[in-house]
Every structure is written in C-alpha cells, then in structure tokens.
Amino acid sequence: MASAQVIPRRATDPPVVFHWVPFVGSAIPYGNDPVKFLFECREKYGNVFTMILLGKRMTIALGAKGNNFILGGKSMVFNAADAYQPFTTPVFGKDVVYDAPNDKFMDQKKFVKAGLSITNLRAYVRMIEEEVADYLAKDSAFQSSPSSTSKWDGQFDVLRAMQEITILTAARTLQGKEVRDNLDKGYAALYADLDGGFTPIHMMFPYLPLESSRKRDRAQKLMQKFYVDIIRKRTASGELGSGKQENLEDGYDMLSTLLGQQYRDGQELKEYEIANLMIVMLMGGQHTSSGTSAWALLHLANNPDVAEALYKEQVQHFGTVHADGKVEFRSMTFEEVRALPLMDRVLRETLRIHPPFHCILRYVREDTAVSPELTSESYVVPKGHYVMASPIISQMDPLIWDSPEKWDPSRWTDPEGVAAEAYKVYLDENGEKIDYGFGKVSKGSDSPYQPFGAGRHRCIGEQYAYMQLGTILAVMVRNFELWIDRVPEIDYHTMIALPKEPRMISYRRR
Ligand code: HEM
C-alpha cells in the first residue's frame, strides 16, 4: 500500500503525523491509547504537530505552554462552539451552551454558577451523605454477610456503583425533588438514551442515521418536556422563585435559581432553555464525577495504607469512639469537606492521572501563528484545522513530575514541590482574575495541571464536584475497608476515560 501524503502543504504548516491510510489517519493508535500515542509523537515531532483523525486535521500543542496557547486563545480565533455544537446540540437541545451566541452562553454559565452558590453547596452535603448511606443499605452488592472463609464480606463493580450513586446524589441536590422522585419511573431510562447518543462515534459523525441517534433525539424532547412540566407546575403553585423556599430542601436546587433569570439584553431565560440547561448539568456532571470517584476508590483499594489514613482523617474530625470501639460519625459541613487535607490530595492526585477529558478541542477560524514559547519553528495553524489541548500529557509528563504513573497523594504535601507550584499557577492566587462574562475566574491556562480546563471555558462545576466527590468518598471509607489487587487499565474508547472490566472491589464492613 502506498503511504499517505504526510508532507505538510505549506512551509509553515506543523508536521503531519505519519499514517498509512488516508482519511482514517491516526484514529486507531490515538483512539486506543491517546497518552502513549501523543508522547510518542512528541518524541518524533516536538510539541506541535498535526494528526489526521477521520478526515479532520487536528493540530496538537503539548505541555503547559501548549495548553495556554489553545485554552488561553481568543474565542474568535479558537472557537469551542464550532468544534462541539454539531454533536452537543442534539443532546443538550437548542439555544443553550454551544448552540447559543457566545455572550448568551456566558450569561447561561453565570446563571448556573449562581445555582452552585456556597449556600446551596452547604445544603447538599447532608443530602449526599443520606443518599449514599441509603444506597449502601439497599443495593444488593452491599448486602453480603461476613464470610467465614474470606477476609472480605463481598465485592462490588465500582463503576456501576459510582454511576448509580452519582445520579442519585445529583438528582437529590442540583436536579431537585421531582427528578429524584422520578429516577426509577422513567427518568433513568431517558438519561440512558440520551447518554447512548453521546459517544465518540456521535462526536466524529453527528449526522449518521443510527438507532442510538434516533433514541437520543426522542429522549431529548421528552426530557425537555419533563422539566418544562415541572417548571409550569411549580410556577402555577407559586412554589418557585430563587430564595423563596430558603427553608425547604427543593429551594436549593438549580431550577429555583434559573427561574426568573434575565440575559444582559433584558430577555428572560425561557422555559425550554432552563430545561436544556438542566440537561447540560446532568450530562456535564455525571460521567466526570462517577469516573473520578470510581478511579479514586480503585486507587484507595489498591493502596490500603492511604485508605486507612483517609478513614483516620474522618475519625479524627467527625468520629466519636465508644467504649466498645465502635465509631459514630456526625455529618460534615461543606467547609469541613473542603478543608480535609488528605481527601483533597486524594482527589487532586486522582484528577492528575485520570482527568475525565483527555482532549479539549477548538475550531480554528483564522490562520494563527504558533507562539514562539512553544517551538522555535515558525508554524502557522491553518484556518479550518482543529486545535487540541491535552492537559493529561502535561499532568503525566515525566519531564515535570516524579514517577508520573504512580498514584501518590503525598506528592501534594511539599509546599515547594512541583505539584504545589502547578496548583498555585492553576488557581492563579496572586494573579489577576479575569471575567469572561460569568464572573471573575483565575485564568490558570499556564499550569501543567488543569483537570477542570482553563480560560473562558473553564468548568463551573469544580466546587460542586469536589464537594460531591469528597462526601461520597467519606461515606465509603467510613463504612468499608477496600481491596483490589491491581488498578484496571484505562478504556479510552468512551467519551471519558473509564476503568476497564474487571473492576470489582472487595469490601469488609468496618
Ligand atoms: C470531576 C468533575 C469534573 C471535571 C473534571 C470537569 C472538567 C471540565 C473541563 C475540562 C471543562 C472545560 C472544557 C473545554 O474547555 O472545552 C469543563 C467545562 C464545564 N463543565 Fe465541568 N467538569 C466536572 C464536573 C462538572 C459538573 C459537576 C458540572 C455541572 C454541574 C460541570 C459543568 C461544566 C460546564 C457548564 C462547563 C463549561 C463548558 C464551556 O464553557 O465550554 N462540570 N469541565
């Protein structure tokens, strides 16, 4: 077979990764293990190169400087909506996020951020503790009696358990009581159909006439109607309006905040837009959080000394030890969950090795010179390419981190260490915060550590995610000792990097 044309078209084009089959390009090695593939490309081509991925030309810029070049770039030049809109609009619905003009989207981010206020997050910790405890009391995997032949009481599939716990806890908190009450009555099935239409295949070929796409479109309509009906019911009964229900649980949900919000041009946020934003919350928080808690538990189960230290941290802060040795735990507050040093390190380290998004895309609207910080070559990324940032590469780079493959929460303890420095830059503590239209945030795009993205598209769910993950892990370690002999390999074929099967963790009740 003749080799594909891999000579750049113009002298200023970045080098093109060698591939045998035109159109398919590097899809197979990249899809199977993007981290291995991108590190190999860095060896051959440097920090900036172009790969062909199913007909699309993707220019990758690696390292902290590469992240900054792409995520710190101007939206008129590197555009997220052009890259994401075709496959996200069928799932999220019309006129929100990437289907809305940028200033409207930034307003929508501001509205959602208002719903993720500290007041609301404070109310959620107890609700999440209750949901997890209730799940553990009912789910069949956690009902085994102690065994006389094994140290362990039973086993659970960690990804299944975390997916179920994540949707239960998100439903109870952000999504509100109507969603929580309907979870077993059709909502979960609609979610599954929506999710089935949100895969790498749909991302690469949004217009293929697949059965999964038909189901997704039907689910989007029904899900939107479900929320619009809730809004109408709440409005009719006078139950809604932000702040009106301060003392009731459902006064803290996202719908309460979104109702009555106005865009900067004075237009009201419409019912169907609120419904679609609720779907965005659902899709934005589900796999990211469930994947992260699953990975954290797998590493804890594989590092029982760290799990034991995490348990002791819980006992020290929230436990009362009775004469018979039994420990009784009290509820945590939001501030307490966020101030647990080891919990924080466990989450940071898990997100370093397993950032849910291993690549972040933008569409190139104008020929753009590559910053000289990145390469000594005078490359220009041509209009019509996509640019791709891959923070996982800088988070796993052996040139930056000691033994980057090793899950080691203690790397975050040294205040002068690489990890602490990367985190400081990510939070941009001393730098000027920037307002992209949804409130001031740290830019953070210069850091080699950026699991929540950076710049104008930076995640607004970070505080919620830390609170949700910290609370779930706390309840798990309070209840169980965990064990797995090896951490599963990473499956990169899903939208979010997830643990391959088998991923059964053994547990023993404390
Ligand atoms: C462990 C949990 C999470 C991780 C690691 C994560 C990661 C990210 C990343 C990397 C981005 C940037 C995407 C880009 O630049 O293209 C992002 C954006 C975003 N995330 Fe999250 N996320 C998490 C949880 C959540 C949750 C719980 C929510 C909602 C409640 C959420 C809502 C959003 C939204 C609305 C954006 C903005 C997208 C944009 O401006 O284009 N995320 N997230």
Automatic annotation (TrEMBL):
This is Lanosterol 14-alpha demethylase. It is found in: Membrane. InterPro entries: CYP450_sterol_14alpha_dmase, Cyt_P450, Cyt_P450_CS, Cyt_P450_E_grp-IV, Cyt_P450_sf. Belongs to the cytochrome P450 family. SUPFAM superfamilies: Cytochrome P450 (SSF48264). Its main location: membrane. Its cofactor is heme. Keywords: Heme, Iron, Membrane, Metal-binding, Monooxygenase, Oxidoreductase. Heme binds at C459. GO terms for molecular function: heme binding; iron ion binding; monooxygenase activity; oxidoreductase activity, acting on paired donors, with incorporation or reduction of molecular oxygen. GO terms for cellular component: membrane.
